[in-house]
Amino acid sequence: MHDALIFTPADIDLSRSPLRATLGAATYVLGAFNPGFTRLPSGNLLMVVRIAEALSEPVVDNHVHAIRWTPAGYVLDAHPLANVDMTDPRQFELRGHPHRMLGLTSLSWLLPVELDPTGRQVVATHYDRAIAPAASYQDYGVEDARISRIGDRWYMTTCSVSAERHSTTLHISDNGLDYRLEGIVLDHQNKDMLLFEGRIDDAYHALTRPLGEVYFAYPPESPYAGGPAINLARSPDALHWRPLGAPGLRARKGSMPAMKIGGGTPPILTPTGWLMLYHGVETREKVGIYRTFWALLDATEPTRILRIEDTTPLLEASPTLTAPIADLLYLPTPVVFTTGIVDAGDHYIVASGEADLACRITHLPKALFA
């Protein structure tokens, strides 16, 4: 089975970063990970990689700095060090606010990276097609692309981060490589919106995972653990979404991902139903352990779950793969975050983010899903 890191921070040329034109401060690549994934008309594969670009010296004169986009260029915001909690390496928390208030230690933009048809080799890095913040609702970055090909178009959801809102945005492409921003499609924090790769009853469908400040308890005898869950929504045009009333996937008591679950790959249609890979989180330290699991949804009624595999992970983080770049690791727990899947005949090609650091390509035999 092929399983390798295909793209790492060392592969980024920061002189071609969208930030470089207006940001004078020195930066480095914190991570190149969580790629949107699809096949192009040429047969080549495309990853749209999240590049988390961080300040080389975020703390200066007893202030921690965050990068922010403005229409005039990128600027730095300074926050007094005495008022922040920096125990999470990916962000800092501002004290003294009535609501939990975060700042980011990096700003993310998206880089299209073209692979050969097997996903084993990079053939082009498209800096000229990079996707960077372009509106005030993206002033702290664009994150975590997920790509679905539906008919002759490609639909890419992204997370747009700002002080205004934490929203889901949609990009559309007619060739799989050049994307145009259509705007906000979900106006609340929902980091895992994925469109099904095909319509059901001539309507678009999507997995969603809305987050909130509080969750209500299931009855003691319920098999479900409560907390963040994977829901479904339906749309006539991929722009206006209505949640479905029936519940989707929920974390189950006693399972490995009982802390939290969320969408991973866009559901693809197989002879037995919609196959979806999703992530599950086990409670451990600040971040938790992320693994990949899978489920099968009914082809015509996707709220009906035909099978859920949440006891044995499909993918786990691999220290062997990250050993050559172990000096760059910054998360305290193992993380694999699967974000894309492509049919390759007798196997699937799966793209993941490894350790919030690099892109991983794995070939999985279809027999694993029998």
TrEMBL record:
The keyword Iron-sulfur does not apply. Keywords: Glycosyltransferase, Hydrolase, Transferase. InterPro entries: Glyco_hydro_beta-prop_sf, Mannoside_phosphorylase. Pfam families: Glyco_hydro_130. It comes from the Bacteria. The keyword Transferase applies. GO terms for molecular function: glycosyltransferase activity; hydrolase activity. Belongs to the glycosyl hydrolase 130 family. This is Putative GH43/DUF377 family glycosyl hydrolase. The lineage of its organism: Bacteria, Pseudomonadati, Pseudomonadota, Alphaproteobacteria, Sphingomonadales.
